[in-house]
Amino acid sequence: MAAGAAEAAAAVVEVGSAGQFEELLRLRAKSLLVVHFWAPWAPQCAQMNDVMAELAKEHQQVSFVKLEAEAVPEVSEKYEISSVPTFLFFKNSQKIDRLDGAHAPELTKKVQRHASSGSFSPSGSEHPKEDLSLRLKKLTHAAPCMLFMKGTPQEPRCGFSKQMVEILNKHNIQFSSFDIFSDEEVRQGLKTYSSWPTYPQLYVSGELIGGLDIIKELEASKELDTICPKAPKLEERLKVLTNKASVMLFMKGNKQEAKCGFSRQILEILNSTGIEYETFDILEDEEVRQGLKAYSNWPTYPQLYVKGELVGGLDIVKMNLKRKKEKEKQWRHQQLPSLRDVIAQLRGHLTHLSPC
């Protein structure tokens, strides 16, 4: 075990200077290089270092590097590292992708994708420009109002993005968002696609409206409310959500990963029944999380709805399941004749038989 741990640790190279980093880029140019910009004071960075060590075991052809962001500021500034953990992906000494935040599943996916893609041309020949343009067109049309920002509405990662979200929320504008930190190809490609060099960028019906300054001007002239679609009232939204599927479960997490014990138990029960159902992660939408408590007059989660009607939480589901099992047991018992009844039927049958 100790030897295995030492081998994994050795597979992740630690860089302490800009010169060492540049030299490593040159030496490892022909392979995929994954660089973790981290900080010793951030616990999430320690977790992601463990993830890197595991990935290093699985992908021995990939070079994994740790670089303390604050200790080598010239490299951090060059690549616009504004938070930790941040991961940069290099091939042929060129940056090809980026991941901001402690997202182990996404890091694993990106490593697998880039490691299996073979040689990479800095010109982007692996993904032709027309393919990227088509993808950007689909993204800008993904919702009537689309915001391309740094971070998410719940956790903006720059002041301009935070201000944009605040303005849209203040005007009750319904919008979806895309975190440009999650996809370097989109981050760079959208600048050319829209001829707009900065973020955030707001699109309505696929057309660029502008950045923060333009939105502020539209707000001041009262045009913003006429351009952007309004969000439905919370009660209307909750009604739509609870009727989204015949069976809807509002929980902490999702089908693949429950984030509390109660949610995990109710998933196990639903999965054991074979019932088709959909889930909604309340941790991703604070408005729904708080609003549904008042809407349903039920203060805790998970909550299970059938055809828009609240069934209850875990205890109610367990109780209903227990009752169902008891009824099934009672029904089976009623279907089985008693021994006395069987003997009586046999005697009656025998008395009617003619003697030989």
Automatic annotation (TrEMBL):
Residues 116-125 have a biased composition (Low complexity). Signal peptide: none annotated. It is found in: Cytoplasm, Cytosol. Residues 1-116 form the Thioredoxin domain. GO terms for molecular function: iron-sulfur cluster binding; metal ion binding. GO terms for biological process: intracellular iron ion homeostasis. Gene3D superfamilies: Glutaredoxin. Residues 110-131 are annotated as: Disordered. One of its GO terms (cellular component) is nucleus. Keywords: Cytoplasm, Iron, Iron-sulfur, Metal-binding, Repeat. InterPro entries: Glutaredoxin (IPR002109), GRX_PICOT-like (IPR033658), Monothiol_GRX-rel (IPR004480), Thioredoxin-like_sf (IPR036249), Thioredoxin_domain (IPR013766). Pfam families: Glutaredoxin (PF00462), Thioredoxin (PF00085). Transmembrane segments: none annotated. This is Glutaredoxin 3. It comes from Bos indicus x Bos taurus.
